[in-house]
Please model this.
Amino acid sequence: MATLGQQVLKVRSKNAGPFWITIDIFCGSDQAFAAVCARLDTAQVAALTGTPLQLVKRFDIADLNVIKLSIPRPVVQGSRDDSDMHGAALAVLLDEMEI
Amino acid sequence: MTTRVLVPSGVLGLGFDHAALMRGVAMRPDIIAIDGGSTDSGPWSLGAGQSKYARAATKGEWRLLMQARAVAGVPLVLGTSGTCGTDATVDWMFEITQDLAIELGQSLRVARLYSSQPNERIVQALEDGRLTPLTPAPALDAEGLRAMTNIVALGGVEQVQAALATGADIILCGRVTDTATIAAMPLLRGEHPGGAWHGAKIAECGALCSTNPTSGVILVDFDQTGFTVEAMAETALCTPHSVSAHMLYENSDPFQLFEPGGHLDVRGARYQALDARRVRVEGSAWVPGPYTVKLEGARASGFQTTILAVIRQAHYVANAQAWADKLHGFLTGLVEKRMGITPPAYTLEFRLIGVNAALGGLENRQGAPVEVGILGIITAETQAIASEIGKLINPFVLHYPLTEDEELPTFAFPYSPATTDRGALYEFALNHVMHLDDPMAAFRLTVSEVG
Model:
């Protein structure tokens, strides 16, 4: 098994406003996109990020070879329990995920 | 007709390539538009009503833009002045503009568009059923609304167009959507609505839609069927990939963007390279809807004091979580004994830097760090209480032993005093839209002659 990060160009996460985080998986080629689209289990991402599956928005964007996943923030940006103000550390969880 | 919009960078205060700016000016834009705000750094700016960028950086860049405006002879529009777009930060930008007008010898008409909302207006809107929650929305009641230190409404193109109609040379906007300042003039002149909003979204972060994001400057030509985008730096290229990929950025949905009065749908958009530098985009649609403006609000949810210690002793590093848990239990008892308070009247949290401080409970890896930073965060009802708790726990964060039968350790404090008072902890407390019959009903315009 290989990690997602080993199979794609880049995994990026970022706030999409204070209440959402969006994760972009840049696959880099048609082949990698097709392979990752088929193997990436949205439920696995939901479990990894502690998000109820029905709240995960997923967009497989063939034109860009990008898979985009958006989740409500586990804690609202900047609130007492937030430890990642810009939401950028979350990408590492997916980057290191085995698929 | 073509409407040419020059966007110097994604935000005022982060810098841009001056040669690229002047190249853009030489191409005779109809308007220069730049954003001044963001929620991306967190709720402090809105809560406190202050800019997150240094006045010196802001003034230095605004000077160059005011000079560029004078050469171009067109309006210069700043969206979301001072990071959060409250009335106070609009006035902060106005003072900077007044200073610069005198220094540069410019006589100017300056319009200020105010977006701050009186708390009672929003309470009334809640009672009238004119607030609609977005997902996910914090719980909302009149008491919570009254406790907010700042509430702003995000204006759209209608409010920016009202400011343009004053004939102002410079428009300092309060909170507006990132796209509004760019889309306002093209829409006013009847350019393609889908193209105007889509082009504005592509250009709102400056050269982030190009191959050289830090160069800043972007030029967009809007017309009757779409838009053409080009980066102004010699080294920056706009390609169909760099442009279309920008719809991903900070958007939870890459195909739909909600704005006051409708939404943009880019599912039909086609991106075509005109040459190595320019991209043509057509096919995006604007879908009219009810006239709503998004609200942002922040309130203080407590005051904080922090303490930082660094653990280097291998025995403690290996058992850092167990040590922190044990210390936390001891300190909770100590605070109750000495100060008579218990959680949730205050909270004390230890974050273990080197273990899981970034991801908390979601962290799924374990390493073997050389040292562990212990960041203690105290949140209480007043700064005085948080500060007092900090002083009370300080000696134990320095010396607390893992087991009872070992000599007292001493950890590394990086500075004295080891505690830091952080002031108010603000939190975003609104994710709602407000329905308006008249777009200007929640906004104010002031026009002044300066210089």
Summary: The beta strands of chain A are 10-15, 20-26, 57-61, 66-72. The mean pLDDT of chain A is 96. DSSP finds four helices and four strands in chain A. The two ends of chain A are 7 Å apart (CA to CA).
